[in-house]
Design brief:
The protein has three helices and six strands. With 146 residues, it is α+β, with helices and mostly antiparallel strands. The chain has a six-stranded antiparallel beta sheet with strand order 1-2-4-5-6-3.
């Protein structure tokens, strides 16, 4: 069971997102924030696409990495942060649709690292198709001692 060390974790993540210019640039926003879990949506736009009108793999990896990172971030004390130590993305289906949906969660919580997983879906009309599964190791950044 995962447990947050900060009762204001939701507000902390929302505040952090306000400073995430890259996430704003690609128009991704979180729709749910829980202890050890986040999910979000993004409308697919022309600049997200590669050949044949498919979502670029880098966009898919970015969403997976982001929801896992934010899921780990919800569990940390106020003075700690996380960075991605390892990221693996398995692409299962092509991403052709109108929206992307990503959800990430902490599989195993630790003091220095959190093991996370994510799924990314493409949405077209009422149909949601799993296009990628991902796993990561999120490494805790501790405050510097002065």
């Amino acid at each position: 069971m995962v447990k947050s060390y900060n009762p204001q974790y939701k507000e902390r993540v929302e505040k952090f997102l306000e400073r995430q210019f890259f996430m704003q640039h690609i128009h991704f926003s979180l729709s749910e924030i829980k202890e050890g879990y986040t999910e979000g949506w993004m409308d697919i736009e022309k600049f997200h696409l590669q050949q044949k009108g498919l979502v670029h793999g880098g966009v898919i990896a970015t969403l997976a990495d982001s929801v896992m990172g934010f899921a780990a971030y919800t569990l940390l004390p106020i003075n700690q942060h996380v960075v991605t130590g390892e990221l693996k993305v398995s692409y299962l289906n092509p991403g052709a649709g109108e929206k992307l949906f990503a959800k990430g969660w902490v599989l195993k919580q630790g003091k220095k690292i959190n093991f996370c997983e994510a799924e990314v879906y493409v949405v077209k009309g009422d149909k949601k198709t799993l296009i990628a599964k991902s796993s990561s190791t999120m490494v805790t950044i501790f405050p510097e001692a002065h």
